[in-house]
Design a protein that fits this description.
The complex is a heterodimer.
Chain A lengths: L15 E2 L11 E6 L2 E13 L2 E8 L8 E4 L3 E2 L4 E2 L19 H6 L16 H8 L14 H11 L10 E2 L1 H13 L8 H9 L8 H4 L8 E3 L2 E3 L17 E3 L6 E2 L2 H10 L8 E5 L3 E7 L4 H12 L14 E10 L2 E11 L6 E3 L2 E3 L8 H16 L4 E2 L5 H25 L12 E2 L1 H8 L3 H10 L3 E4 L2 E6 L1 H17 L18 H4 L4
Parallel strand pairs in A: 9-11, 17-19
Antiparallel strand pairs in A: 1-7, 2-3, 2-6, 3-4, 4-5, 9-10, 11-12, 13-14, 14-15, 15-16, 16-18, 21-22
Helix pairs in contact in A: 2-4, 9-10, 10-12, 11-12
Chain B lengths: L15 E2 L4 E5 L23 H4 L2 H14 L15 E2 L5 H4 L17 H4 L8 H11 L18 H18 L3 H4 L6 H6 L7 H17 L10 E2 L15 E2 L12 H59 L7 H6 L9 H21 L8 H26 L15 H4 L35 H9 L1 H10 L9 H4 L27 E6 L5 E6 L10 E4 L10 E4 L2 H14 L14 H5 L2 H13 L1
Parallel strand pairs in B: 4-5
Antiparallel strand pairs in B: 6-7, 8-9
The chains are: A alpha+beta, B mainly alpha.
């Protein structure tokens, strides 16, 4: 993997010409056949298997989980190939000050090699929090957290409505978002800054070197399932030579050899995640596990989940996190279905750090359960929560679906409480964004974004209104119909036996 | 709503106050629904990394969702992911046996992975080969083994290998870096502690040579790279395989005060741990005793069972139910009432506190109620005694068995006074009691017995003193004996046999209060015993004259009280059911008393 710097916003046009198998090298972008159509793909790695070259390619505009090893036969050499740009003298000193227009954005490609040093892009979490605040608050360190701002506004209570923290200029908010995309000024500028940010909390990284690596494991076997990993995970380097890595379903230990794994299974006595069960219903259970007390198990869990979470970082240890693991029961034991981690104390007010449904359980509605559970915990804590950013594509869709469902439900519920008689304008139910967020333990920002995204926040007669759109109501009705057939799966808050754990200062510090 | 681009056309919107309630309306209620600017979804911050936001599949789903939000019909889109498949050739039920039993309560668990996986080392194929060779009697190099060890189990092999791996990792943590020589067997053996099984120690030598052959620079079980040294060097920063670094220690300022604090804390912790340890030790002891007890019970049961078998085979028929008794431990005989009553005051003392702590606890135990009633009676008796003493203050009670004895009699007086002629006047027994106990049955004394029952202290003392039942050893009582009828030597009391069964009828003259004279006849008393003292009628000169059995002063008095207490108002706060239980409880008590007394007499 040669050093490359196409992460830089670059006006230079890459050189294009025809190539042969022999001249193809890492960094080239060639047309590659994918599912019957040709896509532009970047070669990230090459190897020779039985005398034939194989290429590890990343398809442009496809998620990295679809990166794969392909035989040379799928590379279309009848079309021109883009050659990697020559390295700039000192990319570190370059500032990404040029505004990114649409085309620049498009040509912008993530850095693909370990030594590439593209400035990481804006932290979305930061930009959203910043945008919901007056400009003067930008620099204030104590104001960095949107949740804190909400609480602060509440304490004031009867402040005059107007220029206080709770007013949001929606237009300005959008502008801010656009500016944030263009100007990554508040994001950590250097690797050191990013690492420092990770040190004091958070589990997600924007760092390109962390997230752009060739997958190291071929296949994994876990329980009675086999799957292909999606991303790189720092399992022992020896495993990259193994055809398949065996992972014990209960202790999550990893083995490169079938014999060893079978021996381990004879000795392993774990039958469920090694923590306290805090929730149990007919389908699933939840276990709470302290990263500090169950270091090995939580490390194993993180290694496993890193296979499926691109932005997860394992740079620092698991001590400051709690892990909430959802399991399914059988006669064999509690099978891990998914989990989310949560900082013991989040400076940013996040209630979820990483969240994952294992691939063998995906698309069965478990993600929604995990998300709902995270909000149930926040409700007990009496806090507003939001997931740590950046979200993955799947994470975004999962959260949007959940937010949409609960918000539409809450609004419909409010409408029913009002007697269902909303024909006259005066009789229509009223609800503030903050109250809506409070009742769902969601941050105001998330509520606003959901409403906007569903086109439910409108401006009419010089007033903002929440519109229960026909589309949203119909969608919800269809979902309810489906639930009636399939049975509704939801977290029953009454079965959650949990108190927010309290950590002493000593337990919170990040040493051993 | 996106007003910035259409600023010229549209007036800037008022800011949205998130605290102000907004109307929730349906789409149909919108007045200017036709507004074109409403027909697009504003760009909303997604929270997805910018480079990935543009991804094809995500955009497809988002735009489909946006279209749906605007009312368009779209088919469901999703992001393709590599699928998980069912693993082939895996005997899942063998790998993961069905051994899980769901507990009724939520699981609480704190063992770690290390606690739960046994020996960390797991055999690979090479090890399997080597072990089979070893068990065939061959050494690593194919030579015949010289030791006399028989078979090495897989577990033992793994234990030894784990021991080697762990010991070398502990003693040479930087072997990967500084190329330290492989530890010798002797060095290894120094680290053997009690956790290494005897089997493993025996096999250490032959396996060591194999371990040396296989040992490389990396641990044999593949492990993740965790930074060993907490250095600030960036050497491994770029190494993608190094993970789970420690977060740097937060420095706390060191001061003398802080040090002292820490010492205090540690001392306290030490003490607390020690007491915890002791507690645990006691629990262990208790459980061991329990276990022994169980074992012994089982042994007893087995023996009894054997006995029963013998009985069956020998055709020995015992009494009805005898065999059952053999097999089942009998319930312990309930303790004598007297002792229980002696303990009552303690429980009573505790009660008020308990009631205060649980005011709504209305589940009173019947026995507690009885105890309360009894205590009420005892208290009343004591009160009346006191009252009597007050009445008789400055008065000398010269009656027979005065309720309030003259103080000097009780204190320090000789146990057996010489016969005082003036005291020998005709004693007056209390009017409330028949001075002539009815003859015939044991039950004659019912009333008196009941009274005695209400004066538990007396009873206990009698038993304790090992004096025949009928003789209360209380000095104040003894002073009132009519000495003529008694041997004066206290030593004789124990052996003194009262002529209980004297059939001769008798009578006596008694002076009552107010100078009344009573001549009382004593009927034949066939059976029974002297309840208290013996009274010799002053009229009679005969030494062996008729004996009068008078109850002890206490008993008489308390009987009176008992009678009085029946007139006490119903529903007294402390003991509402008091009148009822006293008579109700009475019948069984005398019977018991009889038994005790009979035993003594």
């Amino acid at each position: 993997m040669a050093p490359k710097n196409d992460g830089e916003v670059d006006d230079r046009v890459p050189e294009r010409s025809m190539a042969t198998l022999a001249t193809l090298r890492i960094g080239c972008k060639a047309m590659v056949e994918k599912d019957g159509e040709k896509r532009k793909a970047e070669i990230l790695s090459m190897k020779t298997v039985k005398g034939r070259p194989k290429f590890y390619v990343h398809y442009e505009e496809f998620n990295k989980r679809l990166d794969e090893w392909i035989p040379d036969s799928r590379v279309d050499l009848s079309q021109m190939v883009e050659w990697p740009l020559p390295e700039k003298p000192d990319p570190k000193k370059q500032k990404t000050s040029q505004p990114k227009n649409q085309s620049a954005n498009k040509s912008q490609k993530r850095a693909r090699s370990q030594t590439a040093t593209r400035e990481p892009s804006e932290t979305p979490g930061d930009s959203s929090s910043k945008s919901s605040r007056r400009p003067s608050a930008h620099g204030g360190k104590e104001n960095r957290d949107p949740a804190v701002a909400v609480v602060a506004a509440e304490d004031i209570g009867g402040t005059p409505q107007g220029e206080d923290e709770s007013t949001v200029d929606l237009a300005e908010m959008q502008t801010d978002a656009a500016v944030a995309k263009a100007l990554p000024d508040s994001a950590p500028q250097t690797r050191e800054e990013e690492i420092e940010k990770l040190r004091v909390g958070g589990s997600m990284t924007q760092n390109q070197t962390e997230i752009s690596r060739v997958r190291n494991l071929e296949r994994i076997q876990m329980g009675d399932s086999e799957m292909e990993p999606w991303y790189f995970s720092p399992y022992p380097a020896e495993f990259s030579d193994c055809d398949i890595v065996f992972i014990c379903e209960f202790c999550l230990l990893y083995f490169g050899s079938d014999t060893q794994f079978k021996r381990h299974r004879q000795k392993c006595t774990l039958l469920h995640p090694p923590g306290n069960e805090i929730y149990r219903d007919d389908n699933v259970s939840f276990f709470e596990i302290d990263g500090r007390r169950q270091r090995t198990w939580c490390r194993n869990l993180c290694l496993l989940s890193k296979l499926f979470l691109d932005h997860k970082t394992l740079y620092y240890d698991v001590d400051p996190f709690l892990f909430y693991c959802m399991t399914e029961r059988t006669a064999q034991g509690h099978h891990l279905v998914g989990y989310f981690s949560k900082e013991k104390e989040s400076a940013e007010g996040y209630n979820v750090a990483c969240i994952l449904t294992l691939p063998q359980y995906q698309r069965k509605g478990y993600g929604k359960l995990l998300i709902q559970f995270s909000y149930e915990l926040s409700k007990i804590e009496g806090k507003l929560g939001s997931p740590e950013k950046p979200l993955s594509d799947l994470g975004l869709l999962g959260y949007r679906a959940y937010w949409q469902e609960v918000i539409v439900d809450a609004l419909l519920g409010r409408e029913n409480d009002n007697g269902g008689n909303s024909s006259s304008g005066n009789g229509s139910p009223m609800l503030s964004i903050e109250d809506l967020g409070q009742s769902l333990a969601m941050t105001t920002t998330d509520v606003l974004h959901t409403l906007q995204n569903l086109n439910m926040l409108r401006y009419t007669n010089k007033n903002h209104v929440i519109v229960l759109t026909d589309a949203a109501v119909q969608l919800r009705e269809r979902q309810i119909e489906k639930e009636k057939v399939k049975g509704r799966r939801a977290i029953d808050p009454d079965r959650l036996i949990w108190k927010p754990p309290v950590f002493s200062a000593a337990a919170r510090t990040w040493n051993w | 709503m996106s007003s910035t681009r259409g600023a010229a056309r549209q007036v800037r919107q008022r800011k949205l106050n998130t605290k102000q309630p907004l109307c929730i309306i349906r789409e149909s209620e919108l007045e200017d629904a036709a507004d074109e600017t409403e027909r697009n979804i504003p760009a909303v911050e997604t929270g997805v990394e910018k480079g990935e936001e543009v991804e094809f599949h995500l955009q497809a789903v988002i735009s489909a969702a946006n279209a749906a939000a605007l009312g368009a019909k779209t088919k469901q889109n999703y992001i393709p992911t590599p699928e998980a498949t069912k693993a082939e050739g895996v005997d899942y039920n063998k790998l993961y046996p069905k051994v899980f039993a769901q507990p009724a309560t939520y699981i609480r668990f704190s063992s770690t992975v290390e606690d739960s996986i046994g020996n960390a080392y797991c055999m690979n194929d090479d090890d399997v080969d080597f072990l089979s060779k070893l068990n065939d009697g061959k050494d690593v190099d194919g030579q015949d083994r010289k030791d006399k060890l028989s078979q090495c189990s897989e577990d033992t092999f793994e234990e030894v290998m784990s021991f080697f791996e762990e010991t070398s990792a502990r003693i040479q943590p930087f072997a990967t870096v500084d190329n330290a020589p492989i530890m010798s067997l002797e060095e290894m053996e120094q680290s053997i502690d009690e956790n290494v099984s005897a089997d493993a120690q025996r096999w250490m030598k032959p396996i060591y040579r194999y371990w040396v052959l296989r040992k490389g620079s990396r641990p044999m079980m593949p492990s993740i790279k965790v930074r060993l040294l907490d250095t600030s060097s960036d050497a491994d920063d770029a190494d993608p395989y190094v993970c789970f670094r420690r977060r740097e220690v937060r420095q706390t300022r060191k001061t003398r005060g802080r040090d002292a604090q820490v010492v205090e804390k540690l001392k306290k912790l030490r003490l607390e741990l020690e007491s915890g340890r002791q507690l645990l030790q006691l629990i262990v002891q208790r459980e061991q005793l329990n276990k022994e007890n169980l074992e012994i019970s089982r042994k007893v049961f087995e023996e009894r069972r054997k006995l029963k078998e013998v009985k069956i085979t020998k055709n020995i028929v015992g009494e009805k139910g005898d065999d059952e008794d053999l097999l089942v431990n009998q319930k312990p005989v309930s303790k004598p009432k007297g002792r229980q009553e002696a303990q009552r005051p303690q429980t009573l003392r505790l009660r008020p506190g308990a009631e205060r702590s649980a005011p709504d606890n209305d589940l009173d135990l019947l026995t507690d109620r009885f105890a309360e009633a009894e205590e009420y009676v005892t208290k009343t008796i004591e009160n009346r005694k006191e009252q009597h003493k007050k009445w008789n203050h400055h008065w000398k009670d010269n009656t027979w068995l005065p309720i309030t004895p003259p103080p000097e009699d009780g204190i320090g007086g000789p146990k057996w006074k010489p016969f005082p002629p003036e005291d020998l006047g005709y004693p007056t027994p209390p009017a409330s009691i028949k001075s002539e106990p009815s003859p015939g049955k044991d039950n004659d004394n019912d009333v008196e017995m009941q009274d005695q029952d209400q004066a538990p202290v007396d009873t206990v003392e009698v038993i304790k003193a090992d004096v025949p039942m009928r003789l209360s050893p209380e000095p104040e009582w003894l002073t009132s004996f009519i000495p003529g009828a008694f041997p004066l030597d206290p030593m004789d009391i124990d052996t003194y046999e009262l002529p209980v069964r004297n059939p001769a009828p008798a009578c006596r003259l008694r002076y009552g209060r107010g100078g009344r004279c009573h001549l009382e006849a004593r009927k034949k008393r066939t059976r029974g015993f002297i309840q208290s003292g013996v009274i010799s009628d002053s009229d009679s000169d005969e030494d062996d004259g008729p004996e009068y059995y008078a109850p002890s002063d206490h008993i008489i008095f308390e009987y009176r009280c008992a009678l009085n207490s029946r007139a006490r108002p119903e529903g007294a706060p402390s003991a509402p059911p008091a009148p009822a239980p006293a008579p109700g409880q009475a019948p069984p008590v005398p019977a018991q008393q009889q038994v005790v007394a009979g035993g003594a007499g």
